[in-house]
Structure formats: C-alpha cells, structure tokens
Amino acid sequence: MIKLPKEVNKILRTIESAGFEAYVVGGSLRDTLLAKEPEDWDIATSAPMDKILELFPDAHVIGEKFGVVRIREGNITADTAAFRIDGQYSDFRRPDGVIFTANIEEDLSRRDFTINAMAGHPEGGILDLFQGREDLKLRLVRAVGDPAVRFEEDPLRMLRGIRFAAQLDFDLDRNTFEAMKGKASLLSKVSTERIREEFLKIITAKNSSKGLKMCMASGLLPEILGEECFRNAGKSELRALTELAENIDRAKIDTEYRIGLVYLCFEKDRALKAIEKMKFDKETEKMLRNALCHLEDLSFINNRIELKQFICKMGLEQYEYLENLSKQQRKVYDFNEYKIRNRMIIFEDIMKFKEPIFIEDLAVTGRDLIEMGMKEGEEIGKMLRMLLDVVHKNPSVNNQKDLLRKAKEFNRNPISAWLRGVRWYK
Q1: Mapping DSSP to helix (H, G, I), strand (E, B) and coil, where does residue 220 land?
Q2: Residue-wise over 197-222: b if at least 16 C-beta within 10 A, else e?
Q3: What is the pLDDT of residue 426?
Q4: Which residues pair with 120 in a beta bridge?
Q5: What gap in Å lies between CA 350 and CA 358, rounded to an integer?
Q6: Weakly modelled stretches of the chain, pLDDT under 70
C-alpha cells in the first residue's frame, strides 16, 4: 500500500471507472517511496489519449506522439501517458516511433533506471520488475537492462543518471558507471541545450560535489564543456578543477556562481570559446565572460577610487555578480578573505554616503555644458567622463557650481583637456 494525495487517487479512480488501468510511475513514485514530496505526478495508463480527454474535458495534450495529456486536479498537476513500447532512437534523443500497448510490464521495461521503472497503486501496491525498491534501499542508480544499450538509445541518460545520484546522494551501479565510461563519446550526438540543462542541474544539486566527480571520472566532462577546455590543460587547471569538485558544495547553490566557478578553472581564451559553445542566454554569457576577463582585476582593487571606477566600468549588477563570485571562490579554495572584506567595507561606505559612481550621478548634465558654450557631440560625453573622474576622487565637488568651474579650468588648460581627449569650444 502506498499513500497518495487525494487528487491523484481521484484521477486514478476516474480512469479505472472507465475500465482502464492506471498507475503512478517514474520520479513521482520514486520520490513518494523516499518520503519526498513530488513536484509533479506521472501516471501511466492503458487508456488511449482520446479516452483521457473524454474523461477530463479540461485536460490538454502536451505530447500527442506519445499519448501524453496534462491534467489539473486541485493543486495537483499530473501528466498521463499511454502504455507504450519505444522504437529505434536514430536521433539519439527520442524514439522514431512508438507502439501503444495494454501491458504495463512492457511500458516499464523501456525506462532508463530501475528507481524510475516501478508502478504504484494505492490498493495494488508496487509493481517492481527490476528491483527498483532494493536499489532505493541500497541508494544505487542502476540502468534497466543493458546500460550500454540504454545509453546508445539516448546518451543524455548518462547525465540524467549522474544528476539523480547528485540530487539523491546515491551511488552509481558499477556496470552502469562502466557503460558511461565506454559510451561517453556518444554525448556529442546530443544537442548542446539538453547537455547544458542537465549539467546545470548536476552542479546545483544538493550533492553536486559527487555529481561533478562522477562527470570527471566517467570521462563525460570533456564532452560536456567541450574539448577546447581540456585540450592542453595544464596541471594547475586540472588541480583547480579537482579542488572545485571536492569543495563545490561549499559554494552557494546558484547556477550563475557555480558555472562561473567551473569555467574559472581554465585558461581564459579556451574557456571563452567553451562558453560560446554552450549557448547560454545573453545575460548569462555576459556574466561568465566578465568573470573570466575582469574577476582578476577586481582582486587587485584596494581603495575606494579604484572601486568606484571599476563599478562605473562594469555596471552595478555585474560588479555585484563578480564580488559574490569572488566570495564563492574563496569558500571553495580557502582564499584569504581580507581583500574581499575590505572591498565590502569600502562599498558599503560608498553606498551609505551616496557617492557618485556613474555619469548619471553628476550634478551637471550635457545640457549644462552646452549652455556654457560646448558644441553638441561626442565632446560632451568626454567632458562628463572627465568630471566623473574628478568626483570619484573628491565627491564633495559634485555640485553644479564646482563642476562647471572645473569644466572651465579644463578649458583654460588645453593640454590637460587634450590629454583627456577633450576639446573645448567657446
């Protein structure tokens, strides 16, 4: 007997009242047996898709080819799928075709791992053809049937297996792990987007250290990040990666910080190419590029003028990302935190006294300069940047009177203005 939410039981009873079988399957059953609350529910049924739509008029189809229908019952979302047998996987992702069957045993036999290949019913108990419950007790991720065949069908299953191990704090079955090592190169057949999403889940899992170590030991990490990262990698890079794998769980569970830590293990130019290959969204790619190109610059800053100039250059959001990434890096590698703490004291002081950082913070505008005699154009921007440099060093002069006076001083000293790239027009 298994205890299920009343909403799930209602869905099962509705399907069964029409003369069909229905079971809770997949990750939702696995999590239930582990006393975890499933995020969503999966139901396998002998009912064809059109019958499910008759029984649940408000449901909608989300996978017609596979007979998948999404049902909303109270606060529960359940995806129902007809029992099926998968055909060949010529694209290394999805079966070319499926054969619907009335046999739950055949449906379970096509699944990836034993812990996901059980069927549960509140009255009938657990149908467990592949010793999935035993593997839950042993805390093992083991492929259904021949693991090499399973990974040839869909190579992404190798990363899914590691993700389950990282999320659940399980180990990999020996034969399953050996098959991963033998089939690692097949991951190149999988789309970058699918690889990226699985890897990000691994490194943000509760036991991400275990997951990252498995990616390295199985030979999958070069396939994940790209050979350009690993080709000619020096001892210091591999040492940094090994230490990261050992200590990544110390870092905040945040995708942008953890993936940033991964790329920071490698030489900049190769890591930049690897980031481009991974096809991140534009904002994430920008953050990662800034980490590789500017995090070291941040580490050398030790006074308020330099810090304001750096924030002005990078923008506040990017600065905060780099500063927080630096904190996570310190946790992983046990760096001395003195410099970080010192910068944070300076930053908090700058914010407290609202010291000007950006051109928008100046007490004068381009219009003020034009009214004083400057012609419109790029020289206005150059002059504003000169004035910003002045107030970075001395915030007390950030008032219209002092700044306009300073602009006139630059006019009277053409060499100074010329050195700053500004020409004054009377």
Answers
A1: coil
A2: ebbbbbbbbebbbbbbbbbbebbbbb
A3: 36
A4: 24, 126
A5: 12
A6: 87-97, 411-426
Plot region of 327 (φ>0 → left; ψ -120 to 50 → alpha; else → beta): alpha
* Domain shared by 351 and 374, yes or no: no
Query: Do 381 and 341 meet the contact criterion of CB atoms below 8 Å apart?
Result: no
Please tell me whether residues 342 and 234 are part of one structural domain: yes
**How many structural domains are present in the chain?**
4
Whether 59 contacts 122, CB under 8 Å: no
- Whole-structure pTM value: 0.89
The pLDDT assigned to 258 comes to 98
Q: Count other C-beta atoms under 10 Å from residue 373's C-beta.
A: 12
Among candidates 248, 177, 169, which has minimal Cα distance to 215? 177
Do residues 342 and 233 both lie within one domain? Answer: yes
Round to whole Å and give the CA distance between 207 and 171.
11
Q: Which domain holds residue 319?
A: 226-355
**pLDDT at res. 247:** 98
pLDDT of residue 191: 94
| 21, 46: one domain | yes
Cα–Cα dist 139/232, whole Å: 37
Q: Which residues contact 345 (CB under 8 A, 6 or more apart)?
A: none
> Which amino acid, one-letter code, is at 250?
R
Give pLDDT, residue 400. 95
Structure confidence at residue 335 (pLDDT): 87
Same domain, 18 and 97: yes
CB 11 within 8 A of CB 48: no
- Does 426 reside within a domain? no
| Stated length of the chain | 426
Residue 414 pLDDT: 58
Residues 185 and 152: their CA atoms lie apart, in Å, by: 10
